[in-house]
């Protein structure tokens, strides 16, 4: 017991560093983040389904060509629309990254979608890369 008392700071530091090493494993549970280059490869060579989970007004202001739009808060009710794509890669798009798309990715994986990816930086990264955007 005196070892614990004498070395409490060392023990706390060891636990904290262990937690920091494990954090990325838990954080990535919502899906793999990909950059625009990998996203384009998924779309062009793997026939990925682009799923935009932003609100309607954001989607109408500009979205990826041929993307499907299901707002994140409606995704669970509309999962049947995606059933036929379970074996294809799904590329999730949000305004600025994984906040909402991470939750959407977790939902999709929990329903058997195996290949779910989040566009790192969301639609803003896509725009900054000067990749095609269509407006409705």
Task: Describe this structure as you would to a colleague.
The chain has 6 helices and 5 strands; from the N terminus they run ααβαβαββαβα. By secondary structure, it is α/β, with parallel strands linked by helices. It folds into 2 domains: 1-29; 31-128, 3-Layer(aba) Sandwich (Oxidized Rhodanese, domain 1). A 5-stranded parallel beta sheet has the order 1-5-4-2-3. Strand 2, helix 4 (56-61) and strand 3 (68-69) form a beta-alpha-beta unit. The longest helix has 20 residues, at 8-27. It starts with a helix and ends in an 8-residue tail after the last helix. The relative contact order is 0.19. The mean pLDDT is 88.
Indicate the structural class. alpha/beta
Under the CATH scheme, the architecture of the largest domain is 3-Layer(aba) Sandwich
Radius of gyration, in angstroms, nearest whole number: 19 Å
How far the N terminus sits from the C terminus, by CA atoms, comes to: 68 Å
Main beta-sheet annotation: 5 strands, parallel
Strand content: 5-15%
Strand order of the largest sheet: 1-5-4-2-3
Unreliable segments of 5+ consecutive residues: none
Helix content: 40-55%
Mind telling me the CATH class of the largest domain?
Answer: Alpha Beta
Q: Any idea of the CATH topology of the largest domain?
A: Oxidized Rhodanese, domain 1
Shape: elongated
Mean pLDDT: 88
Transmembrane segments: 6-26
GO molecular function: transferase activity
Protein name: Rhodanese-related sulfurtransferase
Keywords: Membrane, Transferase, Transmembrane, Transmembrane helix
């Amino acid at each position: 017991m005196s070892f614990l008392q004498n070395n409490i700071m060392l023990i706390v530091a060891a636990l904290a560093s262990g937690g920091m090493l494990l954090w990325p494993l838990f954080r990535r549970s919502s899906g793999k983040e990909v950059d625009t280059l990998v996203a384009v490869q998924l779309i062009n060579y793997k026939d990925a389904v682009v799923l935009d989970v932003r609100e309607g007004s954001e989607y109408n202001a500009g979205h990826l060509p041929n993307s499907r739009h299901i707002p994140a808060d409606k995704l669970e009710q509309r999962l049947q629309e995606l059933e036929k794509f379970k074996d294809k890669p799904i590329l999730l798009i949000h305004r600025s990254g994984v906040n909402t798309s991470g939750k959407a990715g977790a939902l999709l994986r929990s329903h058997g979608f195996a290949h779910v990816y989040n566009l790192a930086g969301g639609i803003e990264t896509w725009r900054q890369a000067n990749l095609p955007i269509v407006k409705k």
